[in-house]
């Protein structure tokens, strides 16, 4: 499944310009995910920006224009939202969602490592 390369490049540029530490890119969930501190932070899912945010802010976030709950395997993922690329054309809006995800990252739990046999 293809994802929005232009949006992926905007995310890369944001991280390079704003962070003092490294990020890692991983292909997963049909898109591209950007990991900080070994934890999923943001990504590109089809044409949208995927943001991992504080679950306590989820309901408030999905009330914003162009934002909806991310679904995976037909299940809503509380704390994960998709932001339509059409509302990200303003730098302030893009920066807001990036910052919201980065601020939650230190509190986010890392996924469990799978045992490789």
Major β-sheet profile: 6 strands, antiparallel
CATH class reads Alpha Beta
Tell me the distance between the termini.
Answer: 28 Å
Low-confidence stretches: none
- Strand percent estimate: 25-35%
Strand order of the largest sheet: 1-2-3-4-6-5
- Give the helix proportion (percent range): 25-40%
> Using DSSP, what is the number of strands?
6
Q: Count of DSSP helices?
A: 3
Principal-axis shape: globular
Q: What is the CATH fold-level name?
A: Yope Regulator, Chain: A
Tally of structural domains:
1
The CATH architecture can be named as 2-Layer Sandwich
Radius of gyration: 14 Å
CATH homologous superfamily - what is it?
YgaC/TfoX-N like chaperone
Structural class: alpha+beta
The H-and-E topology, N to C, reads as HEEEEHEEH
- Mean pLDDT level: 90
Structural write-up:
The chain has 117 residues and is of the alpha+beta class. The chain has one domain: 2-Layer Sandwich (Yope Regulator, Chain: A). The protein has 3 helices and 6 strands. The chain has helices spanning 5-18, 58-62, 91-104; strands at 23-28, 31-36, 39-45, 48-52, 67-72, 75-83. A 6-stranded antiparallel beta sheet has the order 1-2-3-4-6-5. Strand 2 and strand 3 (39-45) form a beta hairpin. The longest helix is centred in the first third of the chain and has 14 residues, at 5-18. The model has no long low-confidence stretch (mean pLDDT 90).
